[in-house]
Amino acid sequence: MSTAALPQPAQVFDLSGQSAVVTGATGAFGEQAAYALAGAGAVVTLAGGNAEKLEAVAAAIRDGGGRSATAAVRPTTEDDVDRIVGTAVDAGGGLDIVVAGSGTNIPGAIVEQDPADWDTVMDVNVRQTWLLCRAAGRVMIPQGRGGKVILMSSTRGQLGLANYTAYCPSKAAVDLLTKALAVEWGPHGINVNAIAPTVFRSDLTAWMYADEGNGPVVRENMLRRIPLGRLGEPTDFHGAVQFLASSAANFMTGSIVYLDGGYTAG
What we know:
alpha/beta; Rossmann fold; 2 domains; seven-stranded parallel beta sheet; 9 helices
């Protein structure tokens, strides 16, 4: 009879002693990603442009027994991302986990949109993600201890949608950035994956959850495509983030994880 020890979930998903950074930490995804990482034991550096809300998230982590630091800046420029990454290194003694949670959307019919809208969406969703990854890689590769990178994609990186002619291409770019980095950084033991959600409850999508206005009609149209029969809740991010950041995902890289209730399955 084998005497091999059974896998222990508490050990597999334990992030104690690891240093993590989350951009967009005041947004729906970034905030929940920060809670998930802190709950698993990581020292989490929160980055975002809303200093007051950033501190509220940090306080919630500390109140829950976790450890956090803040960098009240968005990953807009090279100096910004260097400051964000530097804060994480100082707070956690290095950098092990990166979550690129910043994102935006400016919907509208293409024939009516200003090219500046395209530039803004591509800058926030693609260029800023690229800048963060570059700064993080310059720390993680020399460390020589591998790491986990989680990018923020969307089901719209695979599926088109009217009036989303900037957003959809931006998320498709994030998908290919994920795969390219997975190939480039694999030899360094750095795993790069992306989470691609459908609609999740947030300040921006609250109207879709409401029982007034256009909410019910839009919600019902969405639900017809979601086999699990509901829209997403912020806490649905927790398991996916903890998995991709942990040793449980050590042999997983270059993957787009569709956190969508089955929206893309059919």
